[in-house]
Design a protein that fits this description.
Largest sheet: 4 strands, antiparallel
Strand order of the largest sheet: 3-2-1-5
Number of strands: 8
Oligomer: single chain
Number of helices: 1
Length: 145
């Protein structure tokens, strides 16, 4: 007499296949998610930067932009009172190379030209973030050096 259920061998085979596929999908998804997080960071920083420049112009206050690597964040604070105006988390896969970036946004909304160098542990590439003279916008590109 033949039973209608699965045999132990068939059940184990299905469990091994499902476990293997789940493991494969989760390991491939993690780097992709981290890369998407990095890519979303740059436009978010551009928006915060632009909002800070507008605030400096409208309220006639100097702001300080600072990359705080140890806390994995970028902050905008007022120069005199150190009131936090903006804060943005840096993805854990991005590491600033060298000293922390720190510079002023003047009451005119301008700032000095600056280049920051980052390393991505996801793509294993160095990235160069260049702030234009006047600070109107910044560009991020793979550093070929």
């Amino acid at each position: 007499m033949r039973s209608r259920g699965f045999t132990l061998l068939e059940t184990l085979l299905v469990l091994v296949i499902v476990t293997g596929l789940t493991t494969l999908v989760s390991f491939q998804g993690t780097p992709h998610r981290a890369l998407m997080t990095e890519r979303a960071f740059w436009p978010a920083w551009q928006r915060m930067w632009t909002a800070g420049r507008q605030r400096a112009r409208q309220q006639r206050v100097q702001l300080v932009a600072e990359v705080q690597s140890s806390q994995h964040q970028v902050v905008l604070v007022t120069a005199k009172t150190a009131q936090v105006v903006g804060r943005l988390r840096i993805p854990p896969t991005l590491q600033l190379q060298g000293d922390s970036g720190r510079w002023l946004i003047y009451t005119s909304g301008a700032s000095k030209a600056q280049t920051l160098r980052w390393y991505s542990t996801v793509s294993h590439q160095y990235l160069k973030q260049t702030f234009q003279l006047g600070g109107g916008i910044f560009y991020v590109a793979v550093d070929q050096a």
